[in-house]
Design brief:
Distance between the termini: 41 Å
Structural class: mainly beta
Order of helices and strands: EEHEEHHEEHEEHEEEEEHEEEEEEEEEEE
Strand content: 35-45%
Radius of gyration: 20 Å
CATH superfamily of the largest domain: Jelly Rolls
CATH architecture of the largest domain: Sandwich
CATH class of the largest domain: Mainly Beta
Number of helices: 6
Helix content: 10-25%
Length: about 350
């Protein structure tokens, strides 16, 4: 008997995004060809995306697997129950994750994303909570995360609108490979130069720029009014509750075959790093939710009527219905497993 149409995982085609701050990492990974002369360097590779049609090139397409050639949105709409199981689409009827790689050859803008209250009052804005997993960082590389606790909103806004530097008002943090940094909506932040990350976030492209390193690019406007309505200050940022976990020291479960490290657990997703200690087989567990595997090293081959293989820097998306499949992993294969929350969790003490 044939299996359900969408019981197999799919390999998604990455989407290249040119950015003023982009680098050459993705060309080195052989994900994309080098940009033509005069084109922006590639700063982002969108791995899992299902944004509205108003966002140019904002929806992933299936590169291999059942439904090859279809967009992720089309695939999920063909069998929403099979794909989503107990998980839910977002309020716009879209897949509830946006997953990327970012290559920052230069500093990204200092920015903030809307929280739930701002998004509720402004229908064109969408909540955006995100996490960065640092894949590579040059020595001394830093991020900025949060406003120093003693700085008031009035002091920050006066400095900002007066054209003065705000960097000394922000919390600067050195980072290294393996760090996982949570960035809840409303938290002012910036990714520094010389850092490559995997970014896991809620599906929103709403960003309010606070400072853009004096690039003076008319295509990169600042959004001071919107940003000041969103930025959190003082203890409301809860920075003490947002430790940076590193994959080498975070809580882990080690067996003979695997090391599984919990990196982040938010209201919107959970991120784990899984490493195969030798060539082995792993049973796919979905718990009736779609699951994303972001392959960082090695290779993964999944059985079934539509077998599929993914290598480093490729992304597999498993529908909820694919519970129990077997995946063969080469020795040293490492991937991020990204899971969605269960709506029932809020009702269970």
């Amino acid at each position: 008997m044939s299996e359900p149409y969408n019981a197999s995982p799919v390999l998604l085609q990455p989407i290249a995004k040119g950015r003023a701050w982009g680098g050459t990492t993705f060309t080195g990974w052989k994900k994309f060809t080098a940009p033509a002369k005069g084109e922006l360097a590639i700063g982002e590779s969108w791995e899992v995306a299902d944004l509205p049609e108003s966002i140019a090139n904002g929806c992933s397409r299936v590169a291999a697997g059942a439904g090859a050639g279809k967009t992720l949105h089309e695939l999920v709409n063909l069998d929403t129950t099979g794909w989503m199981g107990r998980a839910r689409l977002n309020a716009q009827g879209r897949f509830p994750l946006l997953v990327k790689f970012l290559d920052a050859a230069e500093h990204l803008s200092v920015q903030v994303h809307p929280d739930a209250s701002y998004a509720a009052a402004n229908p064109s804005a969408h909540l955006k909570t995100e996490s960065w997993f640092v894949l590579a960082a040059k020595p001394g590389a830093t991020i900025w995360r949060g406003v120093k606790e003693h700085v008031t909103k009035q002091e920050f806004e006066t400095r900002l609108r007066g054209g003065g530097s705000i960097l000394d008002l922000l919390v600067e943090v050195r980072v290294q490979a393996g760090d996982c940094i949570d960035l809840p909506s409303g938290l002012c932040h910036a990714l520094g130069q010389g850092i490559t990350v995997a970014e896991i976030q809620t599906p929103s492209d709403t960003t309010f720029r606070v400072f853009d390193w004096n690039r003076n690019d008319p295509a990169r406007l600042l959004h001071l009014d919107e940003a000041m309505a969103c930025i959190q200050f003082g203890k409301s940022q809860r920075l003490d509750h947002l430790p940076i976990h590193n994959a080498s020291t975070a809580p882990a479960v080690q067996t003979r075959a695997f090391c599984t490290t919990l990196l982040s657990r938010t209201d919107h997703y959970t991120i784990e790093r899984i490493e195969a200690m030798h060539a082995t087989t792993l049973e796919v567990i979905t718990h009736q939710h779609p699951v994303c595997w972001l392959i960082l090293n090695g290779s993964v081959s999944v059985d079934g009527e539509t077998p599929i293989t993914a290598n480093a820097w490729e992304t597999l998306l498993f529908p909820a219905i694919s519970e129990g499949r077997s995946a063969k992993l080469s020795m040293g294969t490492t991937f991020l497993r990204i899971k969605l929350p269960d709506p029932m969790d809020r009702f269970i003490a």
